[in-house]
Amino acid sequence: MADSIVLLAIERISDLLIHEAVFLSEVREEVERLQAELKRMQCFLKDVDHKQEQDERLRNRVAEIRDLAYDAEDVIDSFILKVAHQGGFRGIIKRFTSICTKPFHIGEQVKAIKSKLEDISKSLPTYEIPGDGESSSSTSRMQLKRLRRTYSHDVEEDVVSLDGITKNVLAQLMEDGRHVVVSIVGMGGIGKTTVAKRVYNHIDVKRHFDFLAWAFISQECKPREVLHDFLIKVLSPSNEDREKIDKMREDELVKTLFHALEEKRFLIVLDDIWRSEDWNSLQPAFPRGRRGSKILFTTRNKDVASLADPRNTPIELSLLSDDDSWKLFCKKAFPGDNAESNVPSREFETLGRKMVKKCGGLPLAIVALGGLLETKRSLAQWEMVQRNIHGYLNKVQQQDRQYGAVKKILTLSYDELPYHLKPCFLYLGLYPEDWEISKKELIGLWIAEGFISSSMESKEMLMEDVAEQFLEELVDRCLVQVGKRDHTGVST
């Protein structure tokens, strides 16, 4: 978000320097220096985009830069209005509706902003990323990866509304046709891994394939580790051979695994794969194998699935309906046979349904809520949770390892967004919950806010086209639900 604010300020200054040179004769050099410093800040913001979440100092620096960019933008806007009242900038005044009446001293204000920038420069030389920040960031990412790691044998028993999807995946895996990549696509916490585990452990699947292997990929894909683990499983080597495998280079692992799988009908599961680059690094290790060999993906990014196998349509998971959400909640909050009949009273059901509605049909959030309320048996306790549901879920995340990753898992999709998509996604938070948003309206607002800059335009694409492309990217990453489509694509 801060990056887009800085970019907007840079563009305002560029407009100022181009169109109002005659009015800037005394302070032009100061304004140009401010522009150059803002460009350096923008580079810094891009570099730390994925690191600020785990480093408090970086968050503080980003906040300071964002505030200074706002200050710079205010200076430019005020100057444009002042010039407009003196007869200049007739074409740009239409963009502004307020009138600036206070005395204006752009040189002094620019110098004040420059002085604050110098303070940041002293504490963060030339905006380089601190090394120890990387270390803390790396530690945090590793802890989250351990928390999120999946295992093929750990099958979730309390599931609802997955029978149809499971049958669909099974049917594609059991086909004896060409070697294909079967992909399960959906947002974080929607149940992709749960479906994958169900089919992986299905008795018919175990009978059908000669070799099965499961790998958890995540954002931090390490191809050598994945290939090494697959090779150990397929070969079951002696201690002596294991030592040789341990010493193999990555290209040797690729070649050896390829030959080991050539004569087998195999099923390889790559759970939580994020990027096409990760698939490209692993793909050479997998031969066509015997007829019917398959690779199963779970991913949040539809582009990854489409690129891996353009001829096979990804299987998309939907959010749960209100009734299915309630069924899943009851399984967790009132464990036992016929969980729905275990609800103590109508008052409990009314409160429970209101809270479940807040989970938006996302299974991971519903399971966390049910686990929290399982230990609370009085109506007063439920009412207390209902009044501050988000605070209670945050609290249980801190106290209980089982649900400790809920918030982090759901924010991973945001963290993985390219910097230019982040402000566009965050802007959606201004709309009420469950609001149907017009594509045309949203694109216009994105452009007006400066999220789509004129520098992104080309001869082939207008700013509106760029904005629509951004919206499609958010849809493909399962972060935006499509309400309607028309001949142009997304409608709402």
How would you describe the overall organization of this protein?
The protein is globular. It is 56% helix and 7% strand. It has a five-stranded parallel β-sheet, with helices on both faces. It is an alpha/beta fold. Strand 6 and strand 7 form a beta hairpin.
Structural class: alpha/beta
User: H/E order of the elements?
Assistant: HHHHHHEHHEHHHEHEHEHHHHHHHHHEE
Total of helices: 22
Compute the average pLDDT.
Answer: 76
Biggest β-sheet description: 5 strands, parallel
Which stretches of 5+ consecutive residues score pLDDT under 50? 88-104, 129-139, 397-405
CA-based shape:
globular
For the largest sheet, list the strands in their spatial order. 2-3-4-1-5
The count of strands amounts to 7
Q: Indicate the percent of residues in helices.
A: 55-70%
> What is the straight-line distance between the termini?
24 Å
Cα-based radius of gyration, to the nearest Å = 27 Å
Which descriptors would you attach to this protein?
492 residues; alpha/beta; five-stranded parallel β-sheet; two-stranded antiparallel sheet; 7 strands
Q: What's the arrangement of secondary structure elements?
A:
Blueprint: H1 2-19, H2 28-47, H3 56-85, H4 106-123, H5 131-148, H6 163-174, E1 180-185, H7 192-200, H8 203-208, E2 211-218, H9 223-235, H10 239-246, H11 250-261, E3 266-273, H12 276-282, E4 294-299, H13 302-308, E5 315-316, H14 322-333, H15 346-358, H16 363-373, H17 379-387, H18 389-399, H19 406-415, H20 422-427, H21 439-449, H22 463-476, E6 485-486, E7 489-490
Parallel strand pairs: 1-4, 1-5, 2-3, 3-4
Antiparallel strand pairs: 6-7
Helix pairs in contact: 1-2, 1-3, 2-3, 2-4, 3-4, 6-7, 9-11, 14-15, 14-16, 15-17, 21-22
